[in-house]
Write the structure tokens for this entry.
Amino acid sequence: MLIKIYPENPNPKEVGKVVATLRDGGLVVYPTDTVYAIGCDALNVRAVERICRIKGVNPQKSNLSIICYDLSNISEYAKVSNAAFKLMKKNLPGPFTFILPTSSELPKIYKNRKEVGIRVPDNNIVRTLVQELGNPLLTMSVHDEDEIIEYSTDPELIEEKYGNQVDIVIDGGYGGLEGSTVVDCTTDDFTVVRQGKGELL
């Protein structure tokens, strides 16, 4: 199902439909400030497993990333040093993924990895969803690293490709082609693991 939501002014009725789907363990494709992504309620293990299957990802071996509304409850999901918090505060919301040690609040499926990526995208649609859901979203880019092609920027084409695997595709306009900049903050010796759209401040 394709649902149109406008970033400037997300319609509460449409947002409510998407949030109800997420609460039920549904999978949703949504825009971020970088590329379109596929996500679910990060605390719903069955939904997380479904996404990992669709994307061919082994959660024991791959880093998983979550989207938070802001930094206020980030310490529930990750261990954040003062230096890492300052760096994130300067750069978020924005096109970054910060890799941090996991905390005890996340389900076991994340703990096997001991690290989690944290995103606070500068995109009103996905942040509204997270705020209304009250939980972070597990998030994975729609595209595969080596084939960033048109279907990953056009919501109608994404719907054609993923429509039978996910419950809702949000049409929030055309998406970007460049992924987020990934920053390893597991120690205070921060390193950029992948340079993407964002320039760290």
Observations:
- The longest strand covers residues 96-101.
